[in-house]
Amino acid sequence: MQTDSAEKPFALVIEDDPDADFIISEALREAGFRTETTDDGNRAMSLLQELRPALITLDMHLPKISGSEILRQIRADPEMSAVEVMLITVDYRMAESVRQQANWVMIKPVTYNQIRDLAQRLATRHRPDS
Amino acid sequence: MFTLEILTAFLILIGALIMLLSVLSTRQVLELVARTRYSQNWRWLYVLMIFFAAGYIFSIAMVASGLTRVVVVLTGVIFLSGALFVFIVVRTGLLTIQDLQRSQRIIGQARDRAQEASRFKSEMLARVSHELMTPLNAILGYTGMLNEEVYGPLSGQQRQLVTRTMANTEQLIAEINELLEQSQLEAGQLRPRHAALSPQVLLDTVQGNIRSLAAEKDLQVFATVDPELPPLILGDQRLLKDILVNLAGNAVKFTEQGEVRIRLLRAGGNGQPQWMIQVSDTGPGIPQALREIIFEPFQQAEDATTRGKGGFGLGLAIAKQVTTLLGGEIRVDSMPGQGSTFTVTLPLAVPEAQENAN
Quick check: B145 and A23 CB within 8 A? Predict the structure, then answer.
């Protein structure tokens, strides 16, 4: 990536499985994002305020607050309306029920490639010089 | 002197006792007696004496009122017979009601237990599947990264091993998904959720799923959508994909050379509008005797041509159950040695907006 790290957009990975987090984060970094990970809904909300990420990847089954609740909170906040949300989950039924609120829905297993390619298109959009 | 009156009083006494016993149980009668304050030994005698005295006074009164003694005795006999009749009717009725209540209770308990067991099985399977899926997804993700040479180039042999690891992992994931789906179908947990969908997009997704295996076996896959079919129809994308992937996947799996044709068609007929999914192959065909069994869960029409294809044999069973769930029918036409054609006929509905546009 040619862009200076300070100019790279942030991506927040909300995921409780360390393996999934590793693959998603690597793909996002390859695509040109800086990443931060959390599995805690409250922490996610404060990270959203703090980092102003361009992209969120969101798992549905999380230990404290469910993915759909986090998504609801994000969509209820006018300041965060621009953030792009990528659902990455095994639970296609749950994903279907909140499909309208997300920009993308990916059903696990998802590959490094799929995430990287999609994220790359997004990163180009969010790069300051583009 | 008063023998006939005594006899009548006795008949009335017995009749009264029978009447009492027909509405109360022996235990209740005993409790009733126990509530009287007389000494335990005399209780029964006391009750009997009351009844007897009542009967005796009654018959004397009847004689005094001018009835002949024979009529009085007859009254006693009729009273006793009536009491017996009431006893039999009430007891039989009570017993039947009690039997019914007991049967209902037993059925209810059995149903609760069965539901509990089924729920437990589904929950267990869902939990086990989830626990298996998480590490399998990780394996697939990591091998995918190796395959993509994210951390440096692979040698030819390394690539071969990585590809095989990925293929095996994908197969395992597919089989766990089949098991999970079968269990959800059994538990009645899969409910169709209809939304507007494009038959063309549905077909493209399915083609994507079978492309690599078909290419590996050098099979030609033809997929067409009937222009008569509306561009958007109402359906459950996931369940329709299940039917198509299972039928098309099976066709590719069992066909060694030739072609697989997938067609989405508008069905004729004057009644309810219908559409069809048709999958034909040039595989070994299915002998007549096995055409029913192939739709049963965990059964595979095993003969020399199909042996060693692996899997749980759930694909066609799932296709059939999902078809039924969507209100459709599935059938197979086949000539051994000349291939098979699976046809799924489903009710056709279009989204409201389109209906209005038309």
Answer: yes
